Amino acid sequence: MVLVGLFFSSFAYGEQKYSLGFTMRNEYGGTTTATKVGSGDEVKSNEARFGIKRARLDFKGKLSDKANVRIRHRFDKSSDKMGNGKSGNLDFAYMDYKFHDMFTLRIGREYNFHGAAHGAFYSRDNYYSRPQGWFHFLNTDGLSGHMNFSGNKVSLYWFNSKETMSGTQTSPKAQGFGLLYRGDFGMFKPVFSVFNNPKGPRTETTETIAGPLTRTTTAGKTKYTGTTTTTETSYEGGVADMAISLGGQVNVAGAEIGLTIMDITTAGQKVGGTQMKDTKLSTVGLEVVYKVNEFRPVLMFSSSNQKQDGNDESEMKWTKFALVLEWHPSGGGPAWYAGYSQDASESGKASVTKVTQSRAYLGAFLDASKAF
After folding, report:
1. By C-alpha distance, which of 317, 21, 241, 262 is closest to 119?
2. Alpha-carbon distance 259 to 191, whole Å?
3. For 3, which DSSP code?
4. Which of 9, 239, 271, 366 has a CA that sits 20 to 30 A from residue 19's CA?
């Protein structure tokens, strides 16, 4: 409440400025998916379609010399949507109050830049699916303090614990903590982050349809129904996930080279009195962007490995890469791109499952803003 009071009382000081930005990415692409289980035959499927990969409206306001506000809404319904699942497509909604040139306090929803170089410097996350664990604690509601020292920035975060993949909150009352360092030494910009995500007690409800199934067809649509079984699973608390990343960006001869090394430990909780094992995920990511007049070749690569302690059969591996050529016309307007990407995954030991998804695509993106 004190921060909100300071925020609104500062309106009388300094000039007010506002801007409204719009970002859109439209694409046509073809996808081939190849799946092979154990010694069985490889099964392939193909798909080609147009799609809106991104559409966002971004409002920024300088309300005074001390107070700023930002609200960003996302219209696209992509599978890698960001947010904590409570406010739909609201990416950002925060207020800044500058106590000093070296210290700013922020409250609301914002990025937590876990993922080192990728999160801090790049936004080309639609060229291929995000590396495993990227943005592990992205877009959370909370409070953060940002300190600047000669271009070097240290941020401390206090935020609501992130939800699980199933949409269930890890703890209704727990808050996590994070630290981010972003340096600037001219050609070299290091990034380091560490985030803690506590998990308290919770209960998840799962509904399973059991047989025998009944088939009904209405207006050409087939529906299967059966007996529904409801299962409740109770998780005990007292553990926390931990995510650490180290990386940076180097600018050399017109090329921007970003590297990330990341390690995430997902703590095992007690389920029905049984202690689950921790799961560890390690990822290495590389991104290279080279500028040649109006053209920008882009290379993206990542390799990930995940395994539950003491369970070799749980091991999973991912390898992802993308090659893209961007064209940014000197006259302005949308930029165009063409590219190829491949995501390969491998899971299991006794019977290995391999899935490879290859994409070729052509698209355009627009990033425009208007000050008023």
Report:
1. 262
2. 10
3. H
4. 9
Distance between CA 35 and CA 110 in Å, rounded?
Answer: 38
Cβ atoms of 68 and 15 closer than 8 Å: no
Quick check: 124 pLDDT over 60?
no
Q: Which residue, 155, 151, 77, is CA-closest to 114? A: 155
What six digits make up the tokens of 202? 């919770």
Name the 3-class secondary structure at 48.
strand
Q: How many CB atoms lie within 10 A of CB 50?
A: 9
Q: Which of 132, 96, 90 is CA-nearest to residue 10?
A: 96
Distance (Å, whole) CA 59 – CA 73: 9
Q: Tell me how far apart the alpha carbons of residues 299 and 259 are, in angstroms, rounded to a whole number.
A: 12
Are 63 and 75 in contact by the 8 Å Cβ rule? The answer is no
Scan for tokens 């801007």, then name that residue. 19
Q: How far apart are the first and last CA of the chain?
A: 29
The structure tokens 């219209």 sit at 75
Instruction: Work out the pLDDT band at 370, boundaries 50, 70, 90.
Output: confident
Give me 217's structure tokens.
Answer: 């067809």
Can you tell me the distance from the alpha carbon of 272 to that of 285, in angstroms, rounded to the nearest whole number?
37
Beta strands in the chain (DSSP E): 17-37, 43-62, 67-74, 90-100, 103-110, 140-149, 152-160, 175-182, 188-199, 202-218, 221-235, 239-252, 255-266, 270-271, 274-275, 279-290, 295-308, 311-327, 335-347, 353-371
CB 232 within 8 A of CB 205: yes
Place of tokens 């940002």: 146
19 and 72 Cβ atoms separated by less than 8 Å:
no
Instruction: Note whether 235 and 279 are within 8 A (CB).
Output: no
Prediction pTM value: 0.80
